[in-house]
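Our consortium's second objective concerns turning raw sequence data into structural hypotheses that experimental partners can test. To show how far this objective has progressed, the report includes one record in full. It was chosen at random from the queue rather than selected for favorable results. The single chain below, 345 residues long, was entered without modification.
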Amino acid sequence: MSTTQPSEKLIQSVNDLHQWIGLVLSIIILFLAITGILINHSAELELNQQPIKSKWLLNWYGVKLPEIKTFRINSSFISSVNHQLYFNEKPLKISAAHLNGAILFDEFIAVSTDNSLILLTHQGEIIEQLNKTHGIPKKVLAIGTYENLLVLRNKNNLLATDQDFLQWHQILDHNITWAQTSNLSSSIRENISQNFLSHSITLERLMQDIHSGRFFGSKGVLFMDLATLLFIILALTGVWIYLKSSRQKKQFSRKTDIIKLKKTGQYSIVDLNPGDTGEILQIQGDINTRKRLAEMGMITGTKVAVSATSLLGDPRSYIIRGLTVTMRNDEAANILLHPKPRRLS
């Protein structure tokens, strides 16, 4: 009945742990590798311009549609969602602050925001955007018409202009027809909602969140921290297994060499275990090697004992005439001993 050495059991246990952690981390590594490559090439793949349209992903991120403010112009609708203007369901390529009105004026559709006046055709094409340099007052609250004039109202004034939009002047609060909000048709509302939500989260943001673990919330970040800790354990156990295995291989190699040397009756100080003592029989090597070893006290008849061995078994320290000498095994192999050193196993 064979028994397993404690050190071998320990190595086997650590090796099993190492393999188990490696199997778990292989999935995470594959995941991180794919997302990392996508993030690194985000510009080339234009991930920051590709919106997420999946409803469950948008719900997962908690993206909700803000209030849609709408003004009706005949059969058309001017709407605003989070500072994005829409003509019916088509987004207008223009930056705008808070929408506060839209009316039909002359042959234009005049759209008023906090700080600008936007002129559109009846088909929703942008003609011009007027701002404070054109006399538009700050913090406009409403837009309306009075006779053949267009009127803007802020907190303190009522300013009017004609269809040329060249001069603005104050007027009294007469019977001004102010723009009124309207209900949006269900089909257009659905299209605007989908357009807004789909541009809230991009593929680049999704890849970054998955890569960092933020996609899964605070628990995802903790999970990635745990994965990092497992990486550290994997590295440490790998180094430990390598060192232990390497040491065992060297010990096995030494035992094999000793068996061979017993057949020839020759030993070197490399074959001594810690605590062994031997007597030098002969110094081998070229003349420079023999001279250097002789200067270290390695001469025939000298007693040699092993003092210490490094973690990997090479180099080792020897006690010679009361002095400690450290040598590598390839050099120490030139120092042959008398047969049968004490305690040699």
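The partners drew two points from this record. Helices lie at 6-40, 42-45, 55-61, 186-198, 203-212, 217-264, 287-295, 329-332. Confidence is low (pLDDT under 50) at residues 341-345. Both points have been shared with the crystallography group to help prioritize constructs.
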